Amino acid sequence: MRLRTARAVYAVAVLVLVLGCWELVKLVVPEGGVSIGDQRILPRTGDGALPHVWAVVTVLGERDGSGTVGVTLVRTAGFTLGLALLALLIGTVVGVLLAVVMQRFAFVERGLLPYIIVSQTVPLIALAPLVAGWGGKIVIAGEPWRPWMSIAVIASYLAFFPVAVGMLRGLQAPSKASVELLHSYSASWWETLLHLRLPAAVPHLLPALRLAAAASVIGAVVAEISTGTAGGIGRQIIVFSQQATGDASRLYAAVLAAALLGVVVTAVVGVAELALRRYSRPVGAARPAGGDR
């Protein structure tokens, strides 16, 4: 309990420090920035480039269409949240299945793992139009491919990588003696997987899921921008950037909403961590004093 309180206080302190630095830069640096010759070394600090912190907060109450800016951000963030969670689910399933197959067959790991790593070097901005174009030719059970499906696939492309790598490392974590012990009991590969390798993989899987959660949000936002799909926070950032002629408050509010979206998805992973906390200790870690025997 004390550790959680310390973490919360630390997070709030860091936020206050960042906001204080924000306002200090706006106070000290001239509105046009600082340049040496033709090279700008400090950014512009006018309202069109760096609005006040309170301006970003108060803009949430301004009118935007039929509602307010805050309502618009909540609605668009909710759309992106659903796609990010779907992408996280797809990426987790694909990553876990790939890890299990690679652990079971060494030749699959040797042949597939390098391509999994190389796959992450492909920029999303180049991949998104291809996925959207291919998806437009797909019909599932008589239903045409929807733009949101392309976004989910693109985001899951980022999410599956940390899960696959982390899960594979976890499945390989049990010692040779532990594996041989189960073999001495005539345990099959499937029984060894269920009773030894999967529990041992949990401490490696949980950090990978946190990375995948952040990646799914980034992928969803970038995919919305790249495919031009309306309704999400990514597209709303573009809309507000086009409106930011003399005041960038709305743009910063949208960017901060996207950042908070990442926090929400990561919190969902935190719920999974609570459900799996009995397996959260690495293999061979000492049990706490007074713990279960």
TrEMBL record:
Keywords: Cell membrane, Membrane, Transmembrane, Transmembrane helix, Transport. InterPro entries: MetI-like, MetI-like_sf. It is found in: Cell membrane. The chain crosses the membrane at residues 7-25, 79-100, 112-136, 148-168, 251-272. It is a multi-pass membrane protein. Residues 77-273 form the ABC transmembrane type-1 domain. PROSITE patterns: ABC_TM1, PROKAR_LIPOPROTEIN. Belongs to the binding-protein-dependent transport system permease family. This is ABC transporter permease. The lineage of its organism: Bacteria, Bacillati, Actinomycetota, Actinomycetes, Mycobacteriales.
